[in-house]
Amino acid sequence: MDGLDLAELVRLRQVSPEELLQAAVARAEAAQKQINCFAAIWPEIAGAQLAAGGLEGPYAGVPFVVKDLGVEVKGAPMTGGSRAYRGNVASRDSTLVERFRKAGLVFFASTTTPEFGLTLTTESTLYGQTRNPWDVTRTTGGSSGGAAAAVAAGVLPVAHASDGGGSIRIPAACCGVFGLKPSRGRMPMGPAKTEGWNGLSTVGVVSRTVRDTAAMLDLTQGPETGSRYAAPAPVRPFLSELERDPKPLRVALWRTAPNGTKPDADAEAGLMATAKLLEALGHTVVEAGPMLDGEALGKAALFTISANIAATVDERSAARGAPVTDDELEPVTASMVRLGRTVPMVELAKANNTFITAAIQYEHFLDAGGFHMTLSPTIHRAPDPLGTMALTSDPQTMGAAIAGFAPHCAVFNQMGFPAMSVPLHWTAPKPGAPAGLPIGMMFGARFGQEGLLLALAGQLERAALWAQRRPPVWVG
Questions:
Q1: Could you read off the pLDDT of 279-332 as tens digits, one per residue?
Q2: Domain 3-468 is of which CATH architecture?
Q3: Which of 71, 269, 345, 470 is the residue whose CA sits 20 to 30 A from 440?
């Protein structure tokens, strides 16, 4: 069952919220022993929420978890995967959490993330390695790897996630679930700030079904106090987009990433199979891609994120009254903090201009070809072995691994446009992965066009039925 199914059981009194919570906690504890996907499990907070009563909304009584990064659940530990935040407890709810509460969700745990969400695998010195339920020797992706692993393993059907450079889509692709990164300005990031990483970062969910993502988007999107900009209001509820197939679409098959990386044989097979499926559904697929400056985009992202992480560390130092030291940070994080403190102001202005240029070039490309969207592999190879992209790895080796792993993803954060990873391909069985390894396919569209993406995702879901697949580690 997905989240809306569970809520219907509660509404019909076929199950109680307490029974759902008990089942979810038991599953979470079972998954934790096998794949280490939770930063903390706090059923007492959920119990207090249930005891307070007043649960209303489309998800009334459904258990839910948040990523241990960038959001606060009052009274819950929140660390961002960093030893520098060990012992930190949230004193309030984030705006997003307030909207989740209004939808009726019951919070019982937080999922793992790498330190500050800074890499494409979910590994940290604080919490250790989060393991992929399809092959426990492999990465779940990052930085929402704990969330994607929990959903894939059957702990619960939908979980909070966030995305500053692919961090919803990459774990979704690695774990065989669905993940949509919304447009810039679509989702609340407050109450203290209304954007993350100068607009690169946003929030959402990963889910087994498309309709949970669509419903969650309806329930949480929209401006918040202090918003300086907002994505266009949807013309109809996102959930209603799943009721009909989209009109025939013209899709650009964008194979080579801005940094010049091409998919390997496994990802290429998924790309070709997806193109074939699209054509069988009446869409047109043409091999083409925008010409973007990958080197400039990479440099701009590094400067922007490093400056923001340095500010985060300084804020933590001020809040606790003692400086954060390098030995409290992962080695790569510490080097980014040092870089962030020395980036000239002019470079941040240039970085923003680089992102704007990419957005303009992407839309010109769509216009010139009459395209509705682009198609690329979310990840360019099957999930890596654990340790390859950790923030404790050799920086040069780590950098090379990251550059080739998911090179199409970050540009949609940089442009501010929506993109989704759809679980449409699995490799052939491999040692340690008898059911194969997932490789998601990514669709990106113009600013504000989440509705079009979701309509296509619903059609693909009806054709491919991915939610029925089960990984070797399954606790449902």
A1: 999 999 999 999 999 999 999 999 999 999 999 999 999 999 999 999 999 999
A2: Alpha-Beta Complex (3.90)
A3: 71
